[in-house]
């Protein structure tokens, strides 16, 4: 039936045209157009899907063809371009196209291509490749000053001051002294430029250090020293132990006998375990190093790409007969940024600079600007509009007489205090103060603030994106459980296993081998005969042996003395337990092998071809490794075929996730249930199975396997198919449970964050099972919630169906893998993000570093909410830099994340206090401070407006020179700035009631509503102060200035007292200090004040009366408001 349905039913003209075109191209034969027909078909397919509603039943998906053909027709209609099209917006389209074209020409990106690299001959490269230098700087010598100034004057506030300050150079507009305008602006700029210059210089030094590291390069004339930045594609580079690999290379030779080496990849993928890499066997077999130049060989490498977990290439030696071809995969590569952990390696450089995997996976750091700064920027624009309106009103009431436009500008300058320049200074100093408080907090020791501009962001977070390994977990595995189907062993019964293993090996060797040999040959008859139940002892022994053999762990012996390499090789044979460490590509593996050692079966040696185990009795068993099948995220299992040297038996051992293994092992009734039980305890489960092979079976398999490995097309599929032919009816041996220990207090911290209304997403490079496991054990997903595991999808249609299936679920956590995520975002970005944001928790596994950053950016675009990323490895850097607020943990995975972050902490649990206490108070304090500084400017502008309107709209300043500068600085700065010490609840309360944090995300502490309240207060107070002074002054104008200015200062001090919620002794000091300064300065301000009048009683009572009238109503209102509708925090603190 399905065969008869035409895949692309064509009814539209455009599609028919496509078909003709496709036919034409296919007739043209292979050539540049040969690939096109395929593309047209795909385009059509996506067209149908575009037209479909996302919520659609699966039947509809198959049968609904009615709207399949609307889009191509729409396209043909769209192609008619005439005058109407041009007028309706075509000109816009043409302009943008031209601009895009120009930009493309200016920054033409080189197309990335596959390449042939000749060993040791960089000059043979056909293309020019980028330099191998690292550059993390934001600016260069020429762009530094313009760049920093642009970043500053991008803000409306600063730009406005620049214009106002420049206007003072025009004599007709000059009001007061130049320093009253230029001094504050110069101060703000000087501080910013200094701070940026220091940061930039540090970045420059770090880059220089990395780029000038020296490496040995192999040439025909011998070894030469070469700088990291001078390495080219095709160079043969020698890297010593513990040295960083400078560029992406193919691994040719090593000093290790085994022909393999270990590398540390923690700065690339965040995994702390060592990875085993294998040298190309053709070059490893050459007698000496110099022979690399005597052969004619090249490496064919695919084009540079971001995926750090895959590589396809071939190695070809031309001068042998017949030419030798070897397939290259990820295990033959050494990526830049990784570190050699054993031996010395020689590699040929295939990618440099911008084309290396590590650089392609890092994003450029952006300048982070806090939400509060953006909101204040909006408010300053509103104030500017008010300022213009006020000036226009003044000029209108004046009657547009004389040079009115000059008067308009003078009014603009007179009222320019509506927008206070001290706002930036105060906020920047406030930020510095918050940073200092965070670093001095004894409850979160070791916390470092690296970006001082965004502490308020910590109080506005809605999404927290966290890494798993090393952030939520300690990355330390402990073996907890062994289950054999009928019997289960926990941590307290491990000694029984030890006894079983000891008994198995203490039988006389002849007896043991006799049993095993007799059970092997009559295999064919066994299937029909009833199976003899094995004793528990032999089953335990089989299971332990399988765990001890099926892995990719290598024991490494550190030579205690500083011995030369030759002695090192002999020390290998001294299998002493105290200087042995295990290395593997995953900590689970190490935990399993350490456990087999604890029960008596010890792995003492391993190379590429053999493995040696030591029994409890000290006897050494040797096994020959015939094949290993490494773990991949698709297969979810790993296998090994070994031959026992003593009995020549061949056994295929396999272990993997229960999902993958349940279909491979023989039927049983307990596996699924036990896996579920272990997963609920938060254990990572592995199923272990075996199958005995005859020599013929193995030989047949080997020939098919090596043939599949050399194919160039669909290599992975063919290899998988051959391996699957062995994975049938395997004997289930046991189920193991390993625990990844969580960091201290992860559960209560996540609980607190959830109660604070923060949604937590876990983005990890780890496997799906592990990620789900940790999500449950850390209570990221609560006990009562379901989890929806998003099925792997590869095409648009599958994504469509799977999203619909997910939409039907309610209140369940989403678990999705990186590949499926990529597909969903490609076709249904908006729908996917919308659905995911409704989930209480999201877990993304198998995420690449760039994907992590991409998810952060998506959340920012689609929700507009503030995001925070927290991680501890080099693979988290992109995500940390992309988030509005990045937190790094100094962990086992190095300090790369903590250096790139805005805040660095030592433990995950500290994030609770950082957000609930410091984030919350920083935001509330800055909001209060910002509004108060604006109030300070508004009140004096109101007084100026009243003064001008009473005196026939004259553009004359009310307060001259120093009074204005003093008002914004000495007289009121300390009390206003002391608001950074204010707090509404005690830190303990804020931690106990995280719900208080939830209020902040609504941004109610600083909004147009609260701002309007302050504007009204300012207008009321300014009016009272000015009219009061005008009503009460008797003879001279000087008295008006004296009375109103003194009352103004007192009002400001009282208003600070009214705003404060919790008094600090420094606040009291600031109040009296400011008052003292003012009283003391009265003696010197003869030009403004009449000293004789100031000392009289009338002056005192008049000032007191005006001050009481301006402040008392506000105190009454505040008291009533606290009584009638108290804020949430006051209910707790009362």
TrEMBL record:
It catalyses: ATP + H2O + phospholipidSide 1 = ADP + phosphate + phospholipidSide 2. GO terms for cellular component: endosome; perinuclear region of cytoplasm; plasma membrane; trans-Golgi network. Residues 504-536 are annotated as: Disordered. It is an enzyme of class 7 (translocase). The keyword Magnesium applies. It is a multi-pass membrane protein. Its cofactor is Mg(2+). Keywords: ATP-binding, Golgi apparatus, Lipid transport, Magnesium, Membrane, Metal-binding, Nucleotide-binding, Translocase, Transmembrane, Transmembrane helix, Transport. The active site is at 467 (4-aspartylphosphate intermediate). Residues 504-529 have a biased composition (Polar residues). Gene3D superfamilies: Calcium-transporting ATPase, cytoplasmic domain N (3.40.1110.10), Calcium-transporting ATPase, cytoplasmic transduction domain A (2.70.150.10), HAD superfamily/HAD-like (3.40.50.1000). InterPro entries: ATPase_P-typ_cyto_dom_N, ATPase_P-typ_P_site, ATPase_P-typ_TM_dom_sf, ATPase_P-typ_transduc_dom_A_sf, ATPase_P-type_domA, HAD-like_sf, HAD_sf, P-type_ATPase_IV. GO terms for molecular function: ATP binding; ATP hydrolysis activity; ATPase-coupled intramembrane lipid transporter activity; magnesium ion binding. This is Phospholipid-transporting ATPase. It comes from Catagonus wagneri (Chacoan peccary).
């Amino acid at each position: 039936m399905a065969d008869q349905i035409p895949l692309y039913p064509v009814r539209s003209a455009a599609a028919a045209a496509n078909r003709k075109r496709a036919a034409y191209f296919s007739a043209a034969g292979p050539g540049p157009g040969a690939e096109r027909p395929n593309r047209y078909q795909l385009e059509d397919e996506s067209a149908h899907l575009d037209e479909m509603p996302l919520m659609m039943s699966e039947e509809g998906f198959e049968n609904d063809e009615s709207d399949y053909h609307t889009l191509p027709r729409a396209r043909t209609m769209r192609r008619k371009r005439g005058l109407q099209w041009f007028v309706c917006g075509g000109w816009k389209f043409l302009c943008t196209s031209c601009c895009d074209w120009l930009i493309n020409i200016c920054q033409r990106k080189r197309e990335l291509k596959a390449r042939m690299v000749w060993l040791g001959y960089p000059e043979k490269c056909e293309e020019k490749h980028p330099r191998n230098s690292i550059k993390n700087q934001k600016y260069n010598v020429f762009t530094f000053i313009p760049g920093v100034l642009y970043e500053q004057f991008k803000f409306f506030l600063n730009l406005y001051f620049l214009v106002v300050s420049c206007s003072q150079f025009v004599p007709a507009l000059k009001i007061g002294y130049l320093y009253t305008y230029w001094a504050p602006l110069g101060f703000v700029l000087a501080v910013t430029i200094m701070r940026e210059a220091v940061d930039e210089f540090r970045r420059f030094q770090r880059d220089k250090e990395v780029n000038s590291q020296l490496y040995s390069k192999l040439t025909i004339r011998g070894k030469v020293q070469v700088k990291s930045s001078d390495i080219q594609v095709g160079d043969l580079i020698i890297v010593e132990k513990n040295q960083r690999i400078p560029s992406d290379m193919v691994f040719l030779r090593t000093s290790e006998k085994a022909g393999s080496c270990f590398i540390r990849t923690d700065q690339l993928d965040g995994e702390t375990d060592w990875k085993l890499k294998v040298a190309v066997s053709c070059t490893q077999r050459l007698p000496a190093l110099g022979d690399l130049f005597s052969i004619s060989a090249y490496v064919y490498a695919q084009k540079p790409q971001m995926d750090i977990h895959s590589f396809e290439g071939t190695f070809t030696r031309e001068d042998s007969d017949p030419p030798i071809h070897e397939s290259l995969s990820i295990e033959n590569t050494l990526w830049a940024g990784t570190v050699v952990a054993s031996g010395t390696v020689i590699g040929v450089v295939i990618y440099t600079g911008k084309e290396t995997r590590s650089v392609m996976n890092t994003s450029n750091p952006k300048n982070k600007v806090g939400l509060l700064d953006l909101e204040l920027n909006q408010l300053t624009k509103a104030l500017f509009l008010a300022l213009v309106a006020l000036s226009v009103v003044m000029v209108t009431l004046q009657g547009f007489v004389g040079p009115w436009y000059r008067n308009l500008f003078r009014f603009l300058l007179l009222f320019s205090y509506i927008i206070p320049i001290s706002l930036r200074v105060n906020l920047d100093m406030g930020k510095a103060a918050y940073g200092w408080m965070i670093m001095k907090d004894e409850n979160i020791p070791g916390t470092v603030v690296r970006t001082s501009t965004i502490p308020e962001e910590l109080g506005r977070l809605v999404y927290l994106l966290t890494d798993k390994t090393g952030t939520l977990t300690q990355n330390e595995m402990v073996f907890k459980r062994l289950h054999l189907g009928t019997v289960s062993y926990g941590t307290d019964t491990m000694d029984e296993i030890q006894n079983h293993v000891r008994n198995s090996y203490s039988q006389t060797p002849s007896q043991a081998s006799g049993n095993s040999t007799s059970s092997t040959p009559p295999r064919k008859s066994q299937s029909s005969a009833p199976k003899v139940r094995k004793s528990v002892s032999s089953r335990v022994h089989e299971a332990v042996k399988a765990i001890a053999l099926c892995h990719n762990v290598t024991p490494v012996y550190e030579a205690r003395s500083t011995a030369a390499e030759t002695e090192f090789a002999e020390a290998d044979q001294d299998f002493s337990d105290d200087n042995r460490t295990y290395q593997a590509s995953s900590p689970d593996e190490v935990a399993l092998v350490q456990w087999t050692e604890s029960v008596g079966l010890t792995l003492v040696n391993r190379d590429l071809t053999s493995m040696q185990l030591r029994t409890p009795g000290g006897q050494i068993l040797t096994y020959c490794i015939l094949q290993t099948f490494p773990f991949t995220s698709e297969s979810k299992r790993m296998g090994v075929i070994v031959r026992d040297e003593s009995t020549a038996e061949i056994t295929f051992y396999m272990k993997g996730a229960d999902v993958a293994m349940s279909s491979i092992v023989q039927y049983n009734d307990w596996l699924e249930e036990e896996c579920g039980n272990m997963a609920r305890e938060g254990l990572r489960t592995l199923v272990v199975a075996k199958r005995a092979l005859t020599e013929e079976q193995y030989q047949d398999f080997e020939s098919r396997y090596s043939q599949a490995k050399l194919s160039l097309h669909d290599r992975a599929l063919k290899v998988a198919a051959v391996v699957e032919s062995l994975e049938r009816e395997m004997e289930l041996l046991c189920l193991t449970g390993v625990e990844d220990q969580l960091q201290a207090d992860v559960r209560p911290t996540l609980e607190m964050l959830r109660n604070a209304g923060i949604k937590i997403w876990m983005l990890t490079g780890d496997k799906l099972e592990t990620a789900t496991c940790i999500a449950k054990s850390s209570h990221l997903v609560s006990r009562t919630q379901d989890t929806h595991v998003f099925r792997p999808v590869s095409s648009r249609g599958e994504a469509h169906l799977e999203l619909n299936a997910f939409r039907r679920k309610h209140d369940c956590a989403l678990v999705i893998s990186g590949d499926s995520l990529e597909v969903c975002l490609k076709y249904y970005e908006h729908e996917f993000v919308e659905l995911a944001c409704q989930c209480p928790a999201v877990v993304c596994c198998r995420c690449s570093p760039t994907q992590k950053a991409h998810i952060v950016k998506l959340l920012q675009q689609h929700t507009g909410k503030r995001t925070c990323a927290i991680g501890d490895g080099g693979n988290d850097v992109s995500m940390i830099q992309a988030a509005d607020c990045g937190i790094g943990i100094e962990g086992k995975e190095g300090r790369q994340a903590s250096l790139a972050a805005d805040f660095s902490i030592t433990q995950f649990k500290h994030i609770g206090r950082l957000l609930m206490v410091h984030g919350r108070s920083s935001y509330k304090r800055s909001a209060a401070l910002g509004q108060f500084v604006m109030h300070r400017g508004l009140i004096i502008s109101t007084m100026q407006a009243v003064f001008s309107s009473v005196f026939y709209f004259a553009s004359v300043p009310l307060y001259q020179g120093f009074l204005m500068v003093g008002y914004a600085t000495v007289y009121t700065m300390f009390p206003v700035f002391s608001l950074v010490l204010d707090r509404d609840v005690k830190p303990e309360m804020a931690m106990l009631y995280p719900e208080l944090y939830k209020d902040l995300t609504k941004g109610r502490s600083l909004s147009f509503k609260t701002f309007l309240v302050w504007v009204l207060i300012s207008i009321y107070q300014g009016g009272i102060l000015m009219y009061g002074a005008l009503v009460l002054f008797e003879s001279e104008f000087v008295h008006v200035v004296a009375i109103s200015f003194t009352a103004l200062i007192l009002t400001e001090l009282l208003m600070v007292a009214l705003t404060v919620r919790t008094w600090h002794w420094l606040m009291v000091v600031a109040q009296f200090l400011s008052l003292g300064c003012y009283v003391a300065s009265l003696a010197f301000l003869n030009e403004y004040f009449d000293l004789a009048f100031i000392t009289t009683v009338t002056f005192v009572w008049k000032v007191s009366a005006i001050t009481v009238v301006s402040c008392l109503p506000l105190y009454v209102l505040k008291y009533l408001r606290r009584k009638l509708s108290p804020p949430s925090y006051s209910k707790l603190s009362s």
